[in-house]
Amino acid sequence: LAKTTQPISMDSYEGQEVNITCSHNNIATNDYITWYQQFPSQGPRFIIQGYKTKVTNEVASLFIPADRKSSTLSLPRVSLSDTAVYYCLVGDSQNTDKLIFGTGTRLQVFP
Amino acid sequence: GAVVSQHPSRVICKSGTSVKIECRSLDFQATTMFWYRQFPKQSLMLMATSNEGSKATYEQGVEKDKFLINHASLTLSTLTVTSAHPEDSSFYICSARSLRGKGRVLGDDGYTFGSGTRLTVV
């Protein structure tokens, strides 16, 4: 499973756009990139998943460059409720069931 | 959407006793469930993969005799922490994967997590 590297923490203010970048230099051809969000004392929650280029849903956007060695989760206009830990995961979920979490990025949103 | 129910949400037990945590998939069947442990300010650590009708697969360094896993049906997996000690105090989280996840029909990977169990051993 490809190892991921993310910033340990980030700060932002309400209304700003937040971009969290994840490095995954050893990503394999069949690997997808998935982001999860975790609030304190809760289980993680799926945010978005992509393979290449750009994916957008009602919550976030995921940007993946052509070489797929990194990805950026973009949260538009964050609010206080977006304060959480964000995990980037890389793996071939078609052929393996394991989800291995890295260190994650602790996002703190200030008023 | 898929829901995973985990109980209890909090439990305090005395050192040396055993504690059972339940994980149920409410609206889907899950042949595979996962158990994680999370210490404060740390990431989730996969402990074991629970397979319905067969033995669980434990990650390296996880004592299978201490953390007993039973997956007797397609909707229920249990984790029993035996002879608990204060160092077992942690946040335990289960996850289940719906079969639709493998087909990426809905655009996600099909994993749903329980709300976690805070275990405190005194």
Structure description:
- The complex is a heterodimer of chains A (111) and B (122).
- Chain A is an all-beta fold.
- Chain A contains no helices and 9 strands.
- Chain A has strands at residues 9-13, 18-23, 32-38, 45-50, 53-56, 61-64, 70-75, 84-91, 105-110.
- In chain A, β3 (32-38) and β4 form a beta hairpin.
- The radius of gyration of chain A is 13 Å and the shape is globular.
- The relative contact order of chain A is 0.34.
- The mean pLDDT of chain A is 92.
- Chain B has 122 residues and is mainly beta.
- Chain B contains 1 helix and 11 strands, in the order βββββββββαββ.
- Chain B has one helix at residues 100-103; strands spanning 4-7, 10-13, 19-25, 32-38, 44-51, 57-58, 67-73, 76-81, 90-97, 111-113, 117-121.
- In chain B, the strands form 2 sheets. In chain B, strands 2, 4, 5, 6, 9, 10 and 11 form a 7-stranded mixed beta sheet that branches. A 4-stranded antiparallel beta sheet of chain B has the order 1-3-8-7, with no helix packed on it.
- In chain B, β5 (44-51) and β6 form a beta hairpin.
- The termini of chain B are far apart.
- The interface between A and B is medium-sized, with 22 and 29 residues.
